[in-house]
Amino acid sequence: MKKVMTGFEKDRMQGWEFRVMSFIFNAVDLVKSPNRRLDTFNIQKGQTIVDWGCGTGRYLKQASELVSDKGIVYAVDIHELAVKSANKMIKKFNLKNVHPCLTDGQSVSIPTHAADVVYALDMFHMVKDTKAFLTELCRITKKDGLLYLEDGHQPRELSKEKVNNSGCWDVFEETKAYLKCKPKDRTI
Q1: Under CATH, which number does the domain 2-183 receive?
Q2: In a structure prediction context, what are the per-residue pLDDT tens digits for the chain, which is 188 residues long?
Q3: Which of 52, 79, 97, 141 fits 145 for a cystine, CB–CB 3.0-4.6 Å?
Q4: What are phi and psi of 63, to 5 degrees?
Q5: H or E element: which one contains 38?
Q6: Domain ranges across the chain
């Protein structure tokens, strides 16, 4: 039962689970703004950002503002309701630089080496094929780009093991909240 409720290696939530998550995030965000999360990622004007597992879109407005009209934010998710939520955020806040992308969980229509910063928050525990997932994140990330990967509902050691087994990323910093990774040297 625990695996079902927390989504371990499930890839995609059911519609009702997404709606419950949205309700909870909206309630939490009324009490504590989610904006402080992105402040630690040193996002700059003009950068290309990927919010992988964008979910309800709670970080899209701030990401859009941080990169300004000179940058791009890709809002990526495996769930159609997440893309729908991203589109609502785009319309509500007139976010012209945000581009929603539906993914199958392993590939996405973002150009190779496009992203300066990729962040995947509170979703890594749900990924079934972590090697394919991390390989795709590496493909879309610039050689000097960064990945901020939150453990989600799994132990830190398991997250690090999955990252190391991918062969794509080096963990070069850890905080209580996330792993900060850079692409390994590559010839792609």
Answers
A1: 3.40.50.150
A2: 233 334 444 566 667 766 666 555 555 655 676 677 798 999 999 999 999 999 889 899 999 999 999 999 999 999 899 899 999 999 999 999 999 999 988 789 999 999 999 999 988 988 989 999 999 999 999 999 999 999 988 999 999 999 999 999 999 999 999 999 999 976 54
A3: 141
A4: -60, -45
A5: helix 36-39
A6: 2-183
